[in-house]
Specification:
single chain; mainly beta; two-stranded antiparallel ribbon; 1 helix; 6 strands; about 5% helix
C-alpha cells in the first residue's frame, strides 16, 4: 500500500500568472519516487480543474547532497541537469552551493496543458529522528 502526502498552497484570486512564494516541507519516505505536483484552479461551485502537472526527480539532487560537500565557494555550481524527455525541466537546472547548503533551482514545464511553468527550489533537511540519507540506495 502506498501512502501519499498531499499539501496545498493558498489560492491566488483572479490571476493568470499566480505567484505563491510558499515554503512547503515534505516528509520523503522513498527518495526514488518522484514528487508529483498538480496545479489546479479554484472553482466556487464546481470541481477544481487541473491546469497541469509535473514531476520532480530527487535523485540527481540527493546524489550531490549525499557526497557531504563543504567549504565550496558561494554560488558554486555543483551539477547541471539538462531538460530531456524523461524529466519536466523547461530549461537547465542547477544544483548550487549557497549559504553552506546544497540547493537545486529548477523551472518545470507543466504537462497536459498548452503552456505553464513552475519555478521550484529544493533543499534537503535531515530530521533528527530519521536515518537521513545514510544507507539509502539512489
Amino acid at each position: 500500500m502506498m501512502l501519499f502526502k498531499k499539501l496545498k498552497t493558498r489560492h491566488e484570486k483572479d490571476s493568470l500568472n499566480p505567484e505563491w512564494n510558499e515554503e512547503l516541507t515534505l516528509y520523503i519516505k522513498d527518495v526514488n519516487i518522484p514528487i508529483h505536483l498538480t496545479v489546479c484552479d479554484k472553482d466556487t461551485f464546481t470541481k477544481d480543474d487541473k491546469m497541469g502537472e509535473a514531476d520532480i526527480d530527487l535523485k540527481p539532487y540527493l546524489l550531490c547532497v549525499k557526497v557531504g560537500l563543504s567549504e565550496l565557494p558561494e554560488g558554486h555550481v555543483v551539477k547541471r541537469i539538462e531538460p530531456n524527455d524523461s524529466n519536466c525541466l523547461a530549461e537547465e537546472s542547477k544544483i548550487i552551493w549557497t549559504n553552506g547548503k546544497v540547493i537545486q533551482y529548477m523551472t518545470l514545464k507543466l504537462r497536459n496543458v498548452n503552456t505553464g511553468e513552475l519555478h521550484v527550489e529544493i533543499e534537503w533537511l535531515d530530521v533528527p529522528e530519521s536515518k537521513g540519507l545514510s544507507g539509502v540506495p539512489l
